[in-house]
Specification:
Blueprint: H1 13-16, H2 19-38, H3 44-47, E1 75-77, H4 92-96, E2 102-108, E3 120-128, H5 137-141, E4 147-149, H6 160-163, E5 164-165, H7 167-174
Antiparallel strand pairs: 1-4, 2-3, 3-5
């Protein structure tokens, strides 16, 4: 088996003591410090700041207007226009979840449901938000488009029990989806 040895470059004395890198970092820090002292820091108007620093004044100003379109918040369940559950307990989101944060217990659909098309519905659906890594794989795997990632970012549970969202809480946070819900439709 042949291999090609890689020759590493020889560093000069100035490269070995990291003086150039340290000076560059200090220059950026000094620039931000001077702009803050002069009251001309970046994003002063958008973040609601006084010009001293670039920190958003959080309770008064929030990131809602500044969130990018690709932001992934916590997962929620949605209902269809007619109010029925979209989830049919196929358990694909549970199987694909790399953090094992989703737990589904399938059950039969109730006999008084207006739409008897699905074979089953979730009896229990729980997501442990402390384990969830907000990757979005559950949303991509769902064939019924029943689970979406919300734009919510203020999740502050005090206990572990508050961080485990049950089916009722997930539907409450998700709400109804009107019209054709097609996650991959570029014209939506």
């Amino acid at each position: 088996m042949s291999y090609t040895p890689i020759k590493r470059p020889k560093f000069s004395f100035w490269d070995r003591i990291y003086l150039k890198a340290v000076a560059g970092g200090l220059a950026v820090t000094l620039k931000h410090c001077i702009l803050s002292l002069l009251g001309r820091s970046r994003n002063k108007k958008e973040l609601g700041g006084s010009g001293v620093g670039v920190t958003m004044q959080y309770p008064e100003y929030k990131w809602d207007a500044h969130l990018p379109s690709y932001y992934r918040g916590h997962p929620v369940l949605v209902r269809g226009e007619d109010g029925r559950e979209r989830c049919v307990s196929c358990q694909l989101c549970e199987f694909i979840c790399p953090a094992r944060a989703i737990r589904i217990t399938p059950g039969p659909i109730s006999s008084d449901a207006p739409n008897q098309k699905p074979e089953k519905a979730p009896r229990e659906f729980e997501i442990d938000m402390l384990r969830c890594i907000y990757c979005g794989m559950c949303q991509e795997a769902c064939p019924e488009q029943a689970i979406f990632l919300s734009k919510e970012y203020t999740i502050t549970p005090v206990t572990h029990e508050e961080a485990v969202y049950n089916k009722q809480k997930l539907y409450e946070l998700g709400g109804l989806r009107r019209g054709l819900v097609n996650k991959w439709n570029p014209y939506k």
